[in-house]
Design goal:
Number of strands: 0
Oligomer: single chain
Number of helices: 2
Distance between the termini: 81 Å
Helix content: over 70%
Number of domains: 1
Structural class: mainly alpha
Keywords: Membrane, Transmembrane, Transmembrane helix
Strand content: under 5%
Order of helices and strands: HH
Length: about 50
Amino acid sequence: MAESWTGIVVGLCGLSAAVLLVAVHYWREMTRRRKLSRMDHRDCWEVMRHRR
């Protein structure tokens, strides 16, 4: 019985680690997209070009 509990505990630890890694990957990807959209300087260049 103890061996089956050990397998269940190890399996749950593995699944929780996988869920954590997926969540962190998703969060980093959303942060990267948000930062890249803020770095879009086309509007700034258009404003600077028309100031002349």
